[in-house]
Amino acid sequence: MATGPAEPRPPARRPRRGRLAPILGLAGLLALALLFSPLLGNVAIPPEVVLRILARHLTGGAVFSNPCAGTSISPTLCTAYDEIVWEARLPEILLALGAGAALGASGASLQGVFRNPLADPFLLGISSGGTVGAAFVFVFQVDVPQEDLVLPLFAFVGAVATGLVILAAARSRFGSVETLLLTGVALSSFLSSWLSLLLLLNPTGSLQVDFWLLGNIGGGTWAIDGIVLGTVLITGTLLALLGRELNLLQLGTDVAQSLGVDARRVRMQLILLTALTTAVAVAFTGVIGFVGLVSPHIVRRLFGTDYRVVVPGSAVVGGAFLLGARDLSLWVLPTSVLPIGIFTAFAGAPFFVYLLYRRRAAAPMGAL
Amino acid sequence: MSAADPPSLRVARLTVRFGGRPALVGVDLIARPGEFVALAGPNGSGKTTLLRTLLGFVPADEGTVEVGGSPVASLAVRERARRLAWVPQEETTRDDVPLIDYVLFGRYAHLGALEGPTADDRAQAERALVSVGLADRRADGVLALSGGERQRAVLARALVQGAPILLLDEPTAHLDIGHQLDLLARVRALARAGTVTVLAALHDLNLAARFADRIVVLSRGRKVADGPPRAVLSAELLARVWGVVGAVREEPRSGVPYLIPFRPASVGGDGPAPLGVGPVHVVGGGGAASPVLRTLVDAGYRVTAGVLHLMDTDQETAQELGVPTAVELPFVPIGDEARTRGRTLLGAARLVAVAPFPVGPSNLANLEELSEVVGRVPVVLVGWRNRAAWDFSDGAATELVRRLRERGAVDVDTPEQLLARCAAFLAAPPVAP
Questions:
Q1: Closest CA to B354 of B283, B279, B280
Q2: Residue A2: which of B81, B122, B159 has the nearest Cβ?
């Protein structure tokens, strides 16, 4: 098979030029954000106290048994600070990482499935489904003691139900990429009409829905973080493992099939995984825009188009991006609680456009 | 290749419909290991549909499609990819994948779950790149390749698939003539090696004739011809299937038939083609008959010529156009043998056109022969009025022409006016514009 006249010696495989720098840069940025993030919050706590509190918890109490020693902070206040840092800030930080990673990985996978650089995790109506679910809670003021679990549950059910409809469409023989995309758009509009109807019937829920639509990571608890990060770890890994197939799908469904990729099955797997991942993020943080759209593009600019890199890379960048947005919001307006979605787009969009135009001339990038 | 080998492709009574419209109707096709089969036919004749049905993309409505002995529909996608490699007509990719990785995509069906390409896979990809002449571009992104380079990259990818059946859909569409020949020669060498079956949809019938062992012709979804190029290619097939007026020649060194298309039958110089009407016999020499021959052949008439001397300009034109000609050796007077052959052609003619050739002792016989037929069939003198310095026979020729006019020969001035005469005299005339 394919015997050439001369046996070429494959050159030694070097890592592609300029790959190491962005990896290190990204890792450094993430580490910095992780260190810096707990210092920021609505309550002003001296940075050294925050760091001591973190060190105390991370070492299981071996060091800094009194984080406020040597300061004028009273023991009562110190306990409150401890609670704020460890039970509020850190869960919030981890939720930002988890939700960002979920949106980044989903966005990257869906851009691959649809061969469309404009695809994002909410493309198929997952967010609309979640919003309708959440709106039920707001509009009918579902009154149960465990409200912080009811809202995510309703949102999750709404989002997953939408995902299942899309999955059924993907199963059908006629589920071409274009049909699927249009089904998602139609479903999204259909659900939006339900949302409008709900809010017209009971306008009191409308403000809460508005807030929900801008996203919120303030609801993080260690338990929620466990759910979100656990899900992202599992589904994100599975998505990354489908990177080979995503690479081949970029050549078109037919070519991918001719090379041995069961396109319809792979597409269903990808849609199921992204729907689940997105639904979990939406359930606990509402609808946070822009992260899932932009993260894959940033990764592609830095590391190329190989989906085995783009999917996990987008998870990392998505997490860092959302955390950065949180930090920015607290840095700019430390005392107010603004929806995080405002900042993802406010800071992210100009940065994205900058990236786009800076690299445009340099390389013939396919995507975008 | 032998008839005893089990066929690697077997299509029987295949019918495919798209929303009720039949795209393929009762097609049978068998291809064996080592065979290069060309698939020909006009646009929309079903070539691509047949390839797509073989690939399992399009389900068969009736009939069977077997690949390597198994019905294609029963094969898992991965197994299909191990049996069939495909070079599509067009492939769009947005991602700037390094060429070597792009070729390695072809190994996907051989990799285990979660497995990356092995050293052996890489070596195969490198070899494939060498064999399509792209080794120096291995690190470049595919988007940086030209159309022709990309087509060869797709072939390289198909090669590393290691499948016993290679399906090509217009593989030469974006290639210059050098690379067309190169690519098809490579593909044929693969088939010749004995293990690979090649089925290639080719628009270029001459390339098909040159490289394929067999040509299968589809027309409106039906198979209308299947056999070696020599048996399949004919002016009649060209007219019937493609609606083109043309001629079939033989390449002198290889004996490979090749086609010269003249014009579409529907938009000929003078409306509907008088296909096969004639024959019109042309008398000439010294280059005088060439415009007349071309005009008549282009208009679709069956044309004969004679007696012409070998290596005379008119003789060469006649040969080029595939016009049956009575020929005499160069620089000798027309002998009995050539004269008899010329007389046979003249006798079969339904109209005789006489080009304004210089007449001397060596070709005076051509005018003498005309006096045998004038009055029986129309004789048209093309451009003989007011000629100067043409008679080198001491007046014998002038006298012969005078007598021809007396007995009904008519004069026209141009080949175009000749066409009008032909239309007037012959039973199924071309419609004048």
A1: B283
A2: B159
Q: Which two tokens stand for residue A261?
A: 């990729």
Q: Is the pTM of this model over 0.80?
A: no
Number of domains in chain A: 1
Contact by Cβ (8 Å): B420, B270: no
Instruction: Answer whether B47's CB lies under 8 Å from B217's CB.
Output: no
Using CB atoms within 10 Å of the CB of residue B411, give its burial: 0 to 12 exposed, 13 to 18 middle, 19+ buried: middle
**Chain A neighbors of B78, CB-CB under 8 A:** 260, 262
Strand order in the sheet with B62-67: B21-31, B9-18, B62-67, B70-71
- CATH, domain B9-233, list 3.40.50.1000, 3.10.310.10, 3.60.15.10, 3.40.50.300: 3.40.50.300
Backbone angles phi and psi of A97, in degrees to 5: -60, -45
**pLDDT tens, position by position, B95-127:** 889 999 999 999 999 998 778 889 999 999 999
Confidence of residue B419 (pLDDT cuts 50, 70, 90): confident
The kind and range of the H/E element at A258 are: helix A253-258
**B132 within 8 A of B156, measured Cβ to Cβ:** yes
Out of A10, A251, A363, closest to residue B126 by CB: A10
In angstroms, the CA A160 to CA A275 distance is 7
Sequence-distant (≥ 6) Cβ neighbours of residue A48 within 8 angstroms: none
Query: Which class would CATH give B280-425?
Result: alpha beta
The per-residue pLDDT for range A176-199, each reduced to its tens digit, is 788 888 888 899 999 999 999 888
User: Is A243 part of a structural domain of the chain?
Assistant: yes
Residue type for B331, please? F
